[in-house]
Every structure is written in C-alpha cells, then in structure tokens.
Design brief:
Helix content: 25-40%
CATH architecture of the largest domain: 3-Layer(aba) Sandwich
Number of helices: 14
Strand content: 15-25%
Number of domains: 2
CATH superfamily of the largest domain: Thiolase/Chalcone synthase
Shape: globular
Largest sheet: 10 strands, mixed
Order of helices and strands: EHEEHHEHHHEHEHEEHEHEHEHHHEEEE
C-alpha cells in the first residue's frame, strides 16, 4: 500500500465567513470578510475571526458542556466531512478509521476559564472543575471526535503550531499508505480566540492587527499591514486510498501528490526563507513537478512585517520573477485560524479545479515592494484557462514549515 494514491473525498469546515465549502467559496470569490470586533476577557474589544456554526447539530447540550469549544469544532467538521463524503457510519468498520487533527495550542482556554472561576471564590481550588484534565489533554480535539462518532481506530492531535492543519493531512495520508487505517479524518482545528493570552501576547510583540474597520484589519502583503488577526475555525477532510474511493463511486475533490515538512532551526518566531524554499522544492520533487506546473499557491502570509517578506522571498526563489503561477491569500478574509489554517485555506482553493477561478487577496491597497511576487491576485478574482495543481504553504513558530500539493483528479 506504500505507493497508494490518496484522495480527498469529503470536506467539513467552519470558518469566520462560512460553515460549509459552498458558502465559504462564495464569500472568497465575492470579497466577504468574516472578521469582526470581539470582546475578550481583560482586554476588552479586539479584532477576531469568529465562527457561527450550530454546536448542537451533532452534540447534546450535556455533551457540549462537558467538552470544549475546540472539541465541538472538531466534531462538527468531522461529521460534516463524513456526510459530504457520503459515508454511512453504521455500515463501516470504525476500528479502521483514524482521526488526525492538527492544532496550534490546546488547554489554554480551559485553564484560563478555571483560574477566572476560582478567582471569584478567593482562589479556593475546590471550585476547580473535575472535567479539567480531559478538557486539557493534548489529544482532546481528536478524542472528542472518537467519542461522538464511536470511532475505535487510532486518534491523536498533532501539535505543529500554524503548520498543524497541513501536518494533520500529511499524517492521515501516511497512515493510509501504511495500511494502518482505511479512512482518515484529517485536518486542523482552532479555538484560539477563546484565550485572552494569545491576544495579549501578540499585542506585547507588536504583532496584533488593529484597524478602525475590522474587515480591513487582515492585510497580508500590504504596506500598511500591522499584524495578525486571531481567528477560530476548523477544516477536516475525509481521506481515502484511490482504489477504495473509486470502488464506492465517491466524489473526489483532488489527489494529494506532494507534501513536505522541515525546520528552520534558527529562531522561536522569525522564519527562514531558505528553509521555506527547501520545503517547497522538496514537495515539488516528491510530486515529480516543476514550479511552472503549479497553477495556484495559497501563501501562508499572516500580515506580520517580516513574516510576509520572508515568505515572498522564498516564493520568488522557487518560482522566479517571470512565474505564471498565481499567488493568493485566504487570511485576508478570515484572519489567522492557527492550527486550522492549512486545511481551511486549501479547501477554499480546491473548487478552482472545477470553476478555474482564483480567489484574490483582499485589503491589498498598497503593495509592499518587498512582498512583490509575480501574478499576485489582488482584490478581484481571476479566471484561468485551467487549474491542475494547487500548492498550500503553512509555516509556524519554532520554524516548522509544511507544504501540500493537490492535483485535479481526472478518472
């Protein structure tokens, strides 16, 4: 099975501007932002990407109270991914399903909530919730999915900073190739806006976005960008081996043909364009492709000063100054969904295989010359003659880099 071809047969998502792929894609093509003002503990009003999905669509109130927000995101996206793939849970061997979800951080929200709660009782720890431990263990997001869906195959959460969504997909693909599972729920999730600490930390770094109009706060590549918009969200794919998907007549969104991950090993935060270059080239090599074969790159760009500059250096190094590859960015619409970013941003581009449209980067009013790349799609969608390959970049703290390449499937 090591050479099995791996395909995406289901997509479940919640984003600040959509709760399914159709809605999400429509808003990406029509310039609709999901960023808004948001009230958070100790800091008051901040700017954030907030999801508005139905938490009780797949959970009872008691289950939701016992669990976590990120668990609820994970359950919603996983259930939607299975429904989209037209898989009947009652007719499959649930011991052969694996759940691999990437996340940036986990446990901060619940710990902050509990500390705040006992502060009302003179910090008496007898008021600390007995649910705290299962809520904060690292495997919680994937674990809540297995409980809800009665999946008895392997599950774990992958901590890979903002590269985590891509890493969840890479792990799912690898486990399918190894024959460890027959179906994989793979992707990334985030509840980051429910911890005030992430806002406070980015603000202390001078990297928290501010703008009088929240919808214009996330502005990658723009000369006036001033930081990250923190967001929540999730996106989970149903992954299968091609032969299994074809056997059951599944709809196929695309085939995963290349992936790579490496580490900068230079700094806690500052990225290294040289290692990002190596990661993109490695993914291309594994896919047997040349840079010119890629039709769309979804750039990671978070709207930080140096982060955007470093990534565009890497893109220019790999693709050259005369590249025909289109470059776009999804964070301009939804902010940075942290662990969900890789899968969620890729999903918004996958419909390009059918409609040949490239969604733009919005809020790009004054391009920073240091972020200039050839064919950066700005503010208005662009139609191509065809779209056959999409590359998705996701990079994170401690210099973890990840790249996914998906090919249009033609049976």
């Amino acid at each position: 099975m090591i050479n099995s071809r791996i395909v995406i047969t289901g997509i479940g998502l919640t984003a600040p501007n959509g709760n399914n792929l159709k809605e999400f894609r429509h808003n990406l093509l029509n310039g609709v932002s999901g960023v808004q003002e948001y009230e958070t503990r100790y800091m008051g009003k901040v700017i954030a990407g907030v999801c508005n999905f139905d938490e009780l669509k797949y959970q009872k109130k008691k289950e939701r109270r016992r669990g976590t927000r990120v668990g609820s995101v994970s359950i919603y996206c996983s259930r939607e991914a299975f429904a989209d793939a037209n898989i009947d849970l009652e007719s499959i061997d649930r011991s052969r399903v694996g759940v691999y979800l990437g996340t940036t951080e986990h446990g901060n929200v619940e710990t902050e909530n509990e500390v705040y709660n006992i502060s009302k009782y003179d910090y008496d720890t007898k008021f600390w919730s007995h649910h705290h431990n299962p809520r904060t263990v690292s495997n919680n997001p994937a674990g809540e999915v297995t409980l809800n869906m009665k999946i008895t195959g392997p599950h774990y959460t992958i901590g890979a900073a903002c590269a985590a969504g891509n890493m969840g997909v890479i792990q799912g693909a690898q486990m399918l190739r190894l024959g460890e599972v027959d179906l994989a729920l793979a992707g990334g999730v985030s509840e980051s806006i429910h911890t005030f600490g992430i806002f406070a930390s980015f603000k202390s770094e001078g990297a928290l976005a501010e703008h009088e109009d929240p919808t214009k706060a996330s502005r990658p590549f723009d000369k006036n960008r001033n930081g990250i918009v923190c967001s929540e969200g999730g996106c989970v794919y149903t992954l299968e081996r091609l032969e299994d998907a074809e056997k059951r007549g599944a709809k196929i969104y695309g085939e995963i043909v290349g992936h790579a991950s490496n580490s900068d090993a230079i700094d806690f935060i500052l990225p290294d364009p040289g290692r990002q270059t190596e990661c993109m080239r490695l993914a291309l090599d594994r896919a047997g492709l040349k840079p010119g074969d890629i039709d769309i790159i979804n750039a990671h760009a978070t709207a930080t000063q140096m982060g955007d500059i470093q990534e565009t250096k890497a893109i220019r190094d790999v693709f050259g100054n005369d590249s025909k590859t289109r470059v776009n960015n999804t964070k301009s619409f939804i902010g940075h969904t942290m662990g969900a970013a890789g899968t969620l941003e890729l999903s918004g581009n996958l419909p390009s295989f059918e409609d040949n449209m490239v969604h733009p980067t919005i809020n790009l009013d004054d391009l920073d010359p240091e972020c200039a790349v050839n064919h950066l799609v700005a503010n208005t969608p662009e139609k191509l003659p065809s779209v056959n390959y999409i590359m998705n970049n996701s990079f994170g703290m401690f210099g973890i880099n990840s790249v996914l390449i998906v090919k249009k499937f033609e049976g």
